[in-house]
Amino acid sequence: xxxxxxxxxxxxxxxxxxxxxxxxxxxxxxxxxxxxxxxxxxxxxxxxxxxxxxxxxxxxxxxxxxxxxxxxxxxxxxxxxxxxxxxxxxxxxxxxxxxxxxxxxxxxxxxxxxxxxxxxxxxxxxxxxxxxxxxxxxxxxxxxxxxxxxxxxxxxxxxxxxxxxxxxxxxxxxxxxxxxxxxxxxxxxxxxxxxxxxxxxxxxxxxxxxxxxxxxxxxxxxxxxxxxxxxxxxxxxxxxxxxxxxxxxxxxxxxxxxxxxxxxxxxxxxxxxxxxxxxxxxxxxxxxxxxxxxxxxxxxxxxxxxxxxxxxxxxxxxxxxxxxxxxxxxxxxxxxx
Amino acid sequence: xxxxxxxxxxxxxxxxxxxxxxxxxxxxxxxxxxxxxxxxxxxxxxxxxxxxxxxxxxxxxxxxxxxxxxxxxxxxxxxxxxxxxxxxxxxxxxxxxxxxxxxxxxxxxxxxxxxxxxxxxxxxxxxxxxxxxxxxxxxxxxxxxxxxxxxxxxxxxxxxxxxxxxxxxxxxxxxxxxxxxxxxxxxxxxxxxxxxxxxxxxxxxxxxxxxxxxxxxxxxxxxxxxxxxxxxxxxxxxxxxxxxxxxxxxxxxxxxxxxxxxxxxxxxxxxxxxxxxxxxxxxxxxxxxxxxxxxxxxxxxxxxxxxxxxxxxxxxxxxxxxxxxxxxxxxxxxxxxxxxxxxxxxxxxxxxxxxxxxxxxxxxxxxxxxxxxxxxxxxxxxxxxxxxxxxxxxxxxxxxxxxxxxxxxxxxxxxxxxxxxxxxxxxxxxxxxxxxxxxxxxxxxxxxxxxxxxxxxxxxxxxxxxxxxxxxxxxxxxxxxxxxxxxxxxxxxxxxxxxxxxxxxxxxxxxxxxxxxxxxxxxxxxxxxxxxxxxx
Lengths: 337, 536
Hints:
The structure holds 2 protein chains of 2 kinds.
Chain A: H1 2-29, H2 34-38, H3 41-44, H4 47-56, H5 63-75, H6 89-124, H7 129-143, H8 146-160, H9 184-190, H10 194-231, H11 234-242, H12 246-274, H13 278-283, H14 289-298, H15 302-330, H16 332-336
Helix pairs in contact in A: 1-15, 6-7, 6-10, 6-12, 7-10, 8-10, 9-10, 10-12, 12-15
Chain B: H1 2-23, E1 36-41, H2 59-66, E2 71-72, E3 82-83, E4 86-91, E5 97-102, H3 116-129, E6 140-147, E7 150-155, H4 163-166, H5 176-181, H6 190-193, H7 197-202, E8 210-216, E9 220-225, E10 238-243, H8 247-256, E11 261-262, H9 267-272, E12 279-285, E13 289-294, H10 307-316, H11 319-326, E14 331-332, H12 347-353, H13 359-368, E15 376-382, E16 385-386, E17 389-390, H14 391-403, E18 408-414, H15 416-424, E19 431-436, H16 443-451, H17 453-457, H18 464-475, H19 479-496, E20 499-512, E21 515-516, E22 519-520, E23 527-528, E24 533-534
Parallel strand pairs in B: 1-10, 1-11, 15-18, 15-19
Antiparallel strand pairs in B: 2-3, 4-5, 5-7, 6-7, 8-9, 9-10, 11-20, 12-20, 13-19, 13-20, 14-20, 16-17, 21-24, 22-23
Helix pairs in contact in B: 10-13, 16-18, 18-19
């Protein structure tokens, strides 16, 4: 088991580094020059200034040397300096990550809380009204464009009905809680600042519903399909014949088996959420990783792009490992083998 | 059996969600309390709040609240500087620079009195940090303290303008003692040794009505009142500059009262606020403009190398249509690279000597150029919008206008980075739609740009007479004579037809009526809220 884990981790780490190499090469084939976008008009036309700026960011080094500098940096936990924000990429990522982590986790939890029960019900009560509702909800969730849904939610609940707070993580004039994790819910609870806690929670409602909408569709459909398949299994008939209560069969016997594909897809959906959602973040003025990734890509901020690529690779690596571990919990056969 | 338990479970879940929603604080009393001013604006271009490193569009507004400069510009008057930290200025005895007499009784936020030492420190630091603002005072030789209330700025070339440039927030005066305490260096080692930027990003040490209390990137800039402000108590206890990246979200927020000011609304959104009883739309002409730069390099496009062909483009465009249909009527148009409002540039002058739509004249010019059937060229632009107008839409409008004169514009959308790279490395093969915004309000900066770096970008070698007119105008102190020289310069620009100005936007900013004294300006720092206060 231990050898299995270590070999998996080693391979995944290698893949993460390879991903950065691929992204680095691709980013460098784009004909634009990031230096010229960062400088004002006068500076951009001043060859001395441009040369100094380029040297400062190591952009005058040959490609392989730039990449080597990056690799050396990773070993020391240094992801380089962002050309756009002029501070360490790691600082940037650490600044924006908590906002995204908080939002993604709540959104994912919401989609699980609604999606799994809904999927189970849809499977158990196949072709009933609840099945149709579940399938309709999934379809709407998956097909709605995020930016449209985000704005509609804001316009209806904030602008129209006025029951939801506005864009941002907190009220415009509120001060954030002292930073421990960067997750406002956690940080405010730690110091007992319940006003800020509820403020942050209220601001999380709309954006997490938007993000949950798409994931919800996926979870519901997968749970339903998987449940349907598991319900056909022989052991279900045996269990019924034995006289077990239907609830017990569904939750105790069928569900653990049915959850395996849900965990796989759900985990990947969570990893996707964790890497940020640029449209939702823009509309809700959420200072997260999605917007940062988009900005860095658009302005060809190489160090930031590389740092983000590495981070995304690590996120997927960790999530995949967690998925593998969860199999062990759900299906004892995995461990025994 | 399952159905009953399922129904019960479903109900419990629904109740739980309902209970959670009900427990959330009601957002209906979201209007900001009376003593905080909340400004909604897109601050995503903010890299730093260190004045000596200022090079972006939005940060100057914050800087102007926390700091002040020796001289300033009143909104609408971009010709004459007004006193701010300096009450009097005159040429030094030897004519090589300016002598500034500092205002009495000005205190920094810390309570200490401002002296000439602070001025020297601040300006030396800009020069020696050699970041982007330093280029605009590259002609300054040194700063000398004469006495605690008098400071000399000695120039290398005394004919170059200085006063208008010093009004820019990059040349703010801050407290030497405090900035030095946090690693600020002003001597020649500043470039590598200065460490104050990190502190200045989260704090300020200025004389302005508010002081910076914190900055959370892409979220908020917090300002609190400066109790030692020399003009008296500022109107608000706090100012929060809130980043709201989406203009529609800003519209919702200003309607709800969550923000008092919304800066980035587009014309269609502004129109919906026309009859809103709680909001007033303030208008202020900016000094920014959108223009098309047309190359004259024969290797790129032999037709464009002919002056008349370029002039034909200038006479074929429907400028009024662009203003009314695309910008909602909220724009003006200068003759050339000097925005209206500066000395020598007026709407009247545009009517006299500027381009206007005249298809017959365009066709006649094409015939003169030997291109009676027109010609084609590539029109490049970025995937961005300016004051709510997308470059794509603007390009399409221009394309259809030019087609009526027989000129075929091939649309070439590019991403911003590539466009900028191509343009600034002088490789644009046709026309480019882009935006100009002044780092400091000084005609000489823009005019000299057009005969230097911008000329290179369009492969124009300006004749010496044109360059001479620019130098003479910059050095001329008599405003009337200066305006005459600028007129000559603009005539030359129209004649060469490399730069066609499409429109100069009039800012439209939504301000809630509960705020009085919020003053917009086109001078580069967008707004001045030193006199802003809640309406009683």
